[in-house]
Amino acid sequence: MVRRSPRRSRTVLAPLVVLTACLILLDLAAGPGGSTDRLRGAAAAVLGPAERLASGTWRALSDAGQGLTGSTRRQLDELRRENDALRLAARASDDDRRRAGELDALLHTAGLGGYRIVPARVVALAPQQAARQEVTLDAGSRDGIRREMTVLSGDGLVGRIVRVAPTTCDVLLLTDPTFSVGVRVESTGLVGVATGAGSSPMRLRLLDAQTTVEPGARLVTLGSVGGSPFVPGVPVGEVQSVRTSPGTLSRSGRVRPYVEPATTDLVGIVVQPPRTDPRDAVLPPRPQPSSSKGSS
After folding, report:
1. Within 13 Å and on the Cβ side, how many CA atoms surround 208?
2. Which pLDDT tens digit goes with each residue over 70-81?
């Protein structure tokens, strides 16, 4: 039900009230049957339609305003639904682009190294309180997966297979403290062992204490006999620091791994090692320093 606006009615009828008051005074002065009866009748004939017109006009405007408000509300609701749908579509599109980029990088790495891989996705993470840092993949023995196979991503080494079920397998991550891999320093014959250290950089032990390795040197997997558990040439990480270990014949250091397991989704399980050692071919090109322009 639409209520009449008192303010609007008062604005329209204020002059009419004054005129009515004047008629009442004249009526009291003249008594019954006087000329004011005719004036009162004339006023009713004139003022009644005006009041009804004013009230009716405001009622029509109020109804139109309410109809417009309802229509606008429906339009806003529809726009919100369309906006939500567009937001979901954009999010799905971003995920598709990210996954396509990961797949391209993975296939590029596998191609450079000559690795035959089975792509897989991470479907479960070991809880933080678990004894070992592992992830579960959606590929298993039915896909030709076996224990002690190398797992890599488009960025580098992820870990090795430790358990296999028909449709899934578990990977020991390179960040786990029990994980160790033989490594070789880029462009040299220097070898060592990199060991996981949880959320800290990997630990590096170089077997020759007389060697000099600078920060920024890049490491790749040395490779195991028969390619198990590690195939050769997979990027591992960059050296952050190196120091001589007192009382030993080796040098130790810290390595920043290329792969961050917590953000890794798509990986490749190497089911066949390369025919030849790719050496440093899988490492990405180093950025070239920008050349300064000579003065003209």
Report:
1. 10
2. 777 777 777 778
